[in-house]
């Protein structure tokens, strides 16, 4: 989806539609939060420090992100406590993953079940810059129109250069599955494991590079940035993995990891 996504954004920009941040793959028309006010978010990077995805901590050892952010356990590092990716702030904690658990039913064609757990090799130290995010209970739904916050960093360009980038955030309303799945929008490709959010007039959205990041409603992460069509398009809201559909899977996966360790 990467190239078409970028091209649509560039086209929108050429057409002077509000998409000025999208070509750089930033949260579209959001703002820079007070540094270190969003403490549960992490940046997932390649070993040469290219930001590829967002994610969030659910405890000291485990991160949740999107399954499509899976670049391989030996190619990935996780940075918590960050704000500007290009400036060393002294608050960052860098961790290597020990294990990646993409959802076994993840389908890269349909984007269904786009969620992955990352077990860290060493625990993150929780402090005023780094915290854990709360998850909704299994099958809890979130009402249409509810305002939720999505946050993320810009994408590093494919050439390998790093763009100076600080965290961005934006508030968006939840769009009903009926509307999002209707013929006027995604026309039948939205599953019950997905959640849509965005303004019906467009203009604000998550964009490429925000993938894996958290959509927070009422203090809990209900969505993981998953996919979309263009950025901030009025017809197409952003599509998120519905975390509440995976609460049981998350708990069971973590529990079975530790019970397996005890037996060995
Ligand atoms: C993904 O979903 C498509 C459409 O339902 C299906 O045809 C395909 O077999 C699935 N792929 C995998 C790997 O399950
Ligand atoms: C979306 O629409 C398709 C086609 O009508 C349908 O099969 C699917 O179940 C719908 N998704 C949801 C979550 O209702």
From TrEMBL:
The keyword Protease applies. It is found in: Secreted, Extracellular space. GO terms for molecular function: serine-type endopeptidase activity. It comes from the Eukaryota. Residues 27-255 form the Peptidase S1 domain. InterPro entries: Peptidase_S1_PA (IPR009003), Peptidase_S1_PA_chymotrypsin (IPR043504), Peptidase_S1A (IPR001314), Serine_Proteases_S1 (IPR050127), Trypsin_dom (IPR001254), TRYPSIN_HIS (IPR018114), TRYPSIN_SER (IPR033116). GO terms for biological process: proteolysis. SMART domains: Tryp_SPc. Keywords: Disulfide bond, Hydrolase, Protease, Serine protease, Signal. The keyword Lipoprotein does not apply. GO terms for cellular component: extracellular space. Pfam families: Trypsin. Gene3D superfamilies: Trypsin-like serine proteases. Its EC number is 3.4.21.4. It catalyses: Preferential cleavage: Arg-|-Xaa, Lys-|-Xaa. Residues 1-16 form the signal peptide. This is trypsin. It comes from Parambassis ranga (Indian glassy fish).
């Amino acid at each position: 989806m990467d190239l078409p996504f970028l091209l649509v954004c560039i086209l929108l920009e050429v057409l002077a539609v509000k998409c000025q941040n999208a070509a750089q793959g930033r949260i579209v028309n959001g703002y820079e939060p007070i540094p270190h006010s969003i403490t549960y978010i992490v940046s997932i990077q390649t070993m040469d420090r290219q930001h590829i995805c967002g994610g969030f901590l659910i405890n000291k050892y485990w991160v949740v992100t999107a399954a499509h952010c899976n670049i391989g356990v030996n190619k990935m590092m996780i940075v918590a406590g960050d704000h500007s990716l290009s400036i060393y702030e002294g608050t960052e904690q860098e961790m290597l993953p020990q294990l990646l658990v993409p959802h076994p039913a993840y389908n890269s064609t349909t984007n269904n079940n786009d969620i992955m757990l990352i077990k860290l090799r060493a625990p993150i130290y929780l402090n005023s810059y780094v915290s854990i995010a709360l998850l909704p209970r299994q099958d809890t739904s979130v009402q249409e129109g509810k305002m939720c916050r999505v946050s993320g960093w810009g994408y590093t360009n494919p050439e390998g250069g790093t763009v100076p980038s600080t965290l961005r955030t934006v508030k968006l309303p939840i769009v009903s599955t009926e509307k999002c799945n209707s013929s006027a929008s995604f026309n039948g490709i939205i599953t019950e494991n997905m959640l849509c959010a965005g303004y019906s007039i467009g203009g604000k959205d998550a964009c490429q590079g925000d993938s894996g990041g958290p959509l927070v409603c009422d203090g809990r992460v209900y969505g993981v940035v998953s996919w979309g069509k263009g950025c901030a398009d009025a017809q197409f809201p952003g599509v998120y993995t519905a975390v509440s559909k995976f609460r049981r899977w998350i708990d069971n996966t973590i529990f079975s990891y530790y019970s397996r360790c005890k037996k060995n």
